Amino acid sequence: MPSLSDFGIVDETIEQVPAGQVLVKVDTLSMDAWIRTTLDAEGFHESVTLGSTIRAFGIGQVVASSDPGFAVGDWAYGLLSAQTMALMDAAALTKVVPEQGVSPSDFIGLLGITTGLTAWVGLVAVGEVQPGDVVLVSGAAGAVGSCVVQFAKARGARVIGIAGGPAKCGFVTGLLGADAAIDYKAGDVGTQLARLAPEGIDLFFDNVGGEILDAALDNLRPRGGARVVICGAISQYQNLNDVRGPKLYLRLAERNASMRGFVVSHHAARFGEAIKEISQLIRTGKAHLPEHVVEPIDRFPEALMMLFTGQHSGNLVVKP
Amino acid sequence: MPSLSDFGIVDETIEQVPAGQVLVKVDTLSMDAWIRTTLDAEGFHESVTLGSTIRAFGIGQVVASSDPGFAVGDWAYGLLSAQTMALMDAAALTKVVPEQGVSPSDFIGLLGITTGLTAWVGLVAVGEVQPGDVVLVSGAAGAVGSCVVQFAKARGARVIGIAGGPAKCGFVTGLLGADAAIDYKAGDVGTQLARLAPEGIDLFFDNVGGEILDAALDNLRPRGGARVVICGAISQYQNLNDVRGPKLYLRLAERNASMRGFVVSHHAARFGEAIKEISQLIRTGKAHLPEHVVEPIDRFPEALMMLFTGQHSGNLVVKP
């Protein structure tokens, strides 16, 4: 686990904006678990080098442009960094054009590639959720989990969320509308799950890994066809060199089930469909993703660690 | 691990054959890894009780019948036991009618439900093998693995088999026709695999589990769509209460891949297609499954343990 003393703030002056680049005033950065893996020498994603900035998806407004595709005042989305101002290749940014009822901040929340689109792709494209499915979601009070709970409900599933503590469980069954919540701090998850879904679960959307994954595997619907979608494993990111593999993976064979991983960008062909569906949920008030805001930029390292200590509900963001 | 002293032979007299039953002279019993799991108090399959016979799939000839569906001399296939003569419900048996070029023993080999049909279902129905795929098979010299190697070659895949020792590897690349073999006793499997399949594997058919599963996960084709088919985990059957889960299961997420388990009987709708394809391979001399015969029935326990010590190639059977 990194400590706060591992991070530092550096002031730099941006003298000019070269051709093809734009200067973005960072508005909001999305704090996602994958960021932690870039701090290892060898993680899932390209690692950052010592002394460089830490990457994070975010949105901002263009304050200077040397590219014809962006004008001052445009909103832009992309892989920014822990910065107040970001000098970016225009090609690495997507112009965000808010539609009726959809705000710029939705593009790092319910419509964000690491949040809402990840949730939709995992649930729909990979997990093939069906109406009437019993869907289990770990990390249900987190950003991705919050989206999964709501999207699954909107598609007619029965949804059980796993979260830590009564406040988060209340958030999951309250604002998010899950049918039930399991407090993993209040007793054995498998026992609670077996009581809530005695015939087993059809779909498990996993953000956590570890023992919770085994509890879910042990409660897959026996008749076959259950799906485990591996989105992440936040319980294991502190030590990717010695991950606790699912001891009960043979349940997949015993129960004719599957475990499916995904890279969200490999499913870009379906983003249009996802954005249409999610935008409609936003407009009709059927999806919400409260922001847990940490500010200013100096507290970026603290926010990163909050992801792992589980102090927040909803979408953890940093505003510089 | 059971020891030979855990087993005993009991003589019983069969006085009569009740209505609806038949008496079968057991010809050949198929020694399959799942049998080991029935010796645990709680395994994959229904456990046997102390003092009862141990179940095994097999074929035999009817010597007395009190059921109109079977005549003396008919060949029958079913879940028999470690017996010389089996008194069976007729409804629990399938009459085996050998076609041209297909012998009764093929029904516990290339066409057996626990051998050839398991291989076909895992490879085709679950693994969705495609021509040109790089297919990796663990336990490639075993009964299921031998079938997988040959069926995958017949469907146009490039096949790499994993086996223990030069003799078995020679069997895999020789009689079975694999493109390459990896001797897991001769060095790190992952290193050998990376050399043989530098662009990664498309399909891994796993009979073994443990470290070999991790080596395969680490070498899945990065572009996405690779499949891991979990057929068994013979390396783990001695202690199902503390299975070594795949530490690298997150490769599924990183590489947009899936891990799929199956219960062969859930795919019974495709057995007809499988039997047609495999029978054609048998008739045209494109599939072989040598029997490693242990006899007589007294050596059944010894044969069961051979499955785990890896002393055989091909289809391990007991002839009473």
Automatic annotation (TrEMBL), chains A, B:
SMART domains: PKS_ER (SM00829). Transmembrane segments: none annotated. Residues 2-318 form the Enoyl reductase (ER) domain. InterPro entries: ADH-like_C, ADH_N_2, ER, GroES-like_sf, MDR_fam, NAD(P)-bd_dom_sf. It comes from the Bacteria. The lineage of its organism: Bacteria, Pseudomonadati, Pseudomonadota, Alphaproteobacteria, Sphingomonadales. SUPFAM superfamilies: GroES-like, NAD(P)-binding Rossmann-fold domains. It comes from Novosphingobium ginsenosidimutans. This is NADP-dependent oxidoreductase. Keywords: Oxidoreductase. GO terms for molecular function: oxidoreductase activity, acting on the CH-CH group of donors, NAD or NADP as acceptor. The keyword Cell membrane does not apply.
